[in-house]
Amino acid sequence: MSDRYQALAHSPVGKLLVKNLGLPNPPFLDRWSPGDPTVKGTVLVGSAPGSVLGDRVGAALTTLGITATGSFVEGERYKGLLFDATGIDSPEGLVELQRFFTPVLRSVSSSAHVVVVGRLPEQAGSTGAAIAQRGLEGFTRSLGKEIGNGGAVNLVYVGDGAEDSFASTIGFLLSPRSAFVSGQVVRLGLTALTAADAVTDPERPLAGKVALVTGASRGLGAAMARTLHRDGATVVGLDVPAMADDLKKLADELEGGWLALDITVPDAPQRIAAYLKEHHGGVDVVVHNAGITRDKRLKNMKPESFALVVDISVGAPQRITEELVSQGLIRPGGRVLGVSSIAGIAGNSGQTNYGAAKAGVIGLVQDLAPRLAEQGITVNAVAPGFIETDMVKTMPLGIREAGRRLSSMSQGGQPIDVAETVAWIAHPGSSAVSGNVVRVCGQSLLGA
What we know:
By secondary structure, the chain is α/β, with parallel strands linked by helices. The chain is built from 13 helices and 13 strands.
């Protein structure tokens, strides 16, 4: 739905009020459209002394078709900033961040994307390096709250063995595809699975892949299905029988398959597995998106409301994943994605059931990621914040406006923002991305 306050804030009268009263000023965000380049402008690249990724960063940017320069020119405008901080090995060395960023921040365009690249602190090699590399998190999250004008700031930690596997992640975070992703930390190489898979068609990186999306008939699920299809995947949508008509329409639109099924019934995992085996011989991307809310304060909560929310969001996904893995139906290079929520990180009043369920999704990711790595399967979660779905229309005005404004971007995200994040994780080049929980929340001011 439209954000009337955002439109007002950019009107002549609204601009005056926003400036004089210090009101939130939600910018209009750039978003990617098919046919656009990865970045509409130039990326300025810098590095700290002793950093080790320089040549690889340059090669990745060239592969992505990103125009980059290592020389700052006064008066030029930059659409992105990328800083290699892997060489910072002491607390004193953190000043290199200030030396690079302070002179150039006034030269960034609207909706600029900033990426800092570091080493996993636990692999830093010394106490000083571990301190410095962990310090990058506080720096990037703070800069994300300063940059303004639709800008986003994120940190990528590169683990041992993942030095040649960060192109898809850098490309996503520098591009408008990550419009509503800011203040996040992506850890590459947390598991043994790091080598990027080959992509034969950059415009359709998922060509030849089969993707299962639960809760696909509308909202976030429909956006995910359409985006994965756009990237070349054959999509199988799944939703409850009551949504069969909408599900079939989506399947017809995407020339994919559909399965009307309640995922909580005892034989759901076996029926899903049988469908995928019969029609596609397996699956490459599994997106556990289905979820419901049954909000009440805990003192008024009924056991069945608590149990159902947990079972749909994480109990059934656990059973379905285990069944697909046990039958060997998730192919090597496969991707399992759970949909968590900011409620599972920061909590929400009246949502103890939902918060437990969405935190449980994170537990599922952390447990499965190292265990499935040896089978060539990555496991990650996306955690949406306030996203403009149909559910928003039912919220009281005050709660709706508070949800929109409580982020560094002072607005809600769009379903495509979550879908683009799913598509990045599903990308064959994202094999080093496993065990991560990435918030799509415009750097919400709630939670870590």
